[in-house]
Amino acid sequence: MKPLRPPAADRSLPHTLPARRCWAEVDLAALRHNVGALRAALPPGTGVMAIVKANAYGHGLGPVATALHSAVEAFGVANLAEAVELRRHVAGARVLLLGPALPEERPIVVASGLEAVVSSLEEGHAYAALGSAERPARLHLAVDTGMGRIGIAEPKALALAKALAALPGVRLVGVGTHLPSADEDDAFTREQLTRWAALAGALREAGLVEPELHALNSAGTLAYGATCPGGPGWLARTGLALYGSAPLPEAQPRLRPVLTWKTRITLLRDLPPGTSLSYGRTYTTPAPMRVATLAAGYADGYRRHLSGAGAEVLIRGHRCPVRGRVTMDQILADVSAVPGVAEGDEVVLLGRQGGEEILAAELAQKAGTIPWEIFTGLAPRVARHYLERK
């Protein structure tokens, strides 16, 4: 029996395609602007840890980390695979794994000089066995002050920090906590930050002057950064706001959206009244309507929950309503009010066109989700293009 051979390449196909159908433009200058805006909300000297997990919130891990490596003090990722990918682009970058590493991942974490979060003395001992005086395991103690996800219980945190700092082969480089509701519950967050400040003071009084202290996320930075302890020896871990989406609407003017998501009109049709559109026939034209077919769908990340939810797209600077259900590869928009519209026109799904803008928060609200999910839901087939806008 002859072995199967792969088919020969089809040389009639082009190496590059002549046009873009669905893509995202990532403004690296806006990204750095937002770092500056976040620093301005913090006490002078406070460091910024850029959270670039989940492919830099869908913006592209490698290009984002490369653009930010000289603008921030450290990076935060979710897991070892993301840390390894980041280091491929920015050699020697300081990287914290925000979630616990698996036991079999710990040797790589230590050997690579990555930083790991621990919640227990048992984890500390496991890392100590892998570290040495020349290459200690670089650890951050997570303290649970209200998130309930990882971390040592707050009353036990000081004792555990002392124990970790005393372990041979370990360097305690950070102690942090997480704010679960900085964008929703002001009273709880203020009380949580008061407890955190007291713990931070106790750590310093105990002689633990080296670990950097960090608690503020994007909402915490924008809402409480100016009134929280900070300066040298403190970090803020900023994610969503870094990408120009404010978790607090009143802070949005301080930020510049980084990502513009575009597609194209592939077809225009003039439809009579009574024409049903898309799956389920959930929308029927009430009058003569010019309908554009767009080259994007839920396989690109345009959420199906936007069907019938009042979603709009931007075409020639006009807001155009999405009609019928979002399908896997295409959506329909009413362009009856847009003069001069043509097949091939650019369509903005997220971002600015002319005097109109669709923010991630708007799409999220209409889809019944959050901006984080809008960004991270952008599919791999949405090509990312990187530029520097003035």
Describe the 3D structure.
With 390 residues, the chain is α/β, with parallel strands linked by helices. Helices cover 26% and strands 26% of the residues. It contains 11 helices and 20 strands. It has helices spanning 28-40, 53-57, 61-68, 80-89, 106-111, 121-128, 157-166, 186-205, 218-224, 360-367, 371-376; strands at 22-27, 47-51, 74-77, 95-97, 115-118, 137-144, 152-153, 170-176, 212-214, 234-238, 259-271, 276-277, 283-284, 289-294, 312-315, 318-323, 331-334, 346-353, 356-358, 383-387. Strand 15 and strand 16 form a beta hairpin. The longest helix is centred in the middle third of the chain and has 20 residues, at 186-205. The chain is globular, with a radius of gyration of 25 Å.
Radius of gyration in whole Å, from Cα? Answer: 25 Å
* Percent of residues in beta strands: 25-35%
Class from helix and strand fractions: alpha/beta
State the separation between the terminal residues, measured CA to CA. 63 Å
Report the total helices.
11
Question: What sort of overall outline do the alpha carbons produce when their principal axes are compared?
Answer: globular
Strand line-up across the major sheet: 2-3-4-5-6-8-9-10
Kindly state the number of beta strands: 20
What summary fits the major beta sheet?
8 strands, parallel, barrel
Proportion of residues in helical segments: 25-40%
pLDDT below 50 for ≥5 consecutive residues: which ranges? none
How much is the average pLDDT?
95
